[in-house]
Predict the structure.
Amino acid sequence: MDLIRDSLFSIQVQQPWLLLQFDDSNIEEIGEDRVNKILSVSPDENKGKDREEAVKAEIEDNDNANLSITKTMNRLGIVVFLVLFNIGISFFVFFF
């Protein structure tokens, strides 16, 4: 059961998040340190300013344009696709 849960988490949460943040879902290619720099900063503490600084550093230090405002529409399109994909996966998990 743990293996199924871990696989579903990876497919429905982790990989889509990586894709939206870094335009790649392979954590080895992205670099685990880059991912952890963003995830280690709470989005709630200091009214989100610390997370905002971490994101700005990611954009500037690694030329990650995917987090910039110019890629918002691209990311919105990906989100729509991912929601439909996750609904499909959830349907098969619960009904088959």
About this structure: The mean pLDDT is 95.
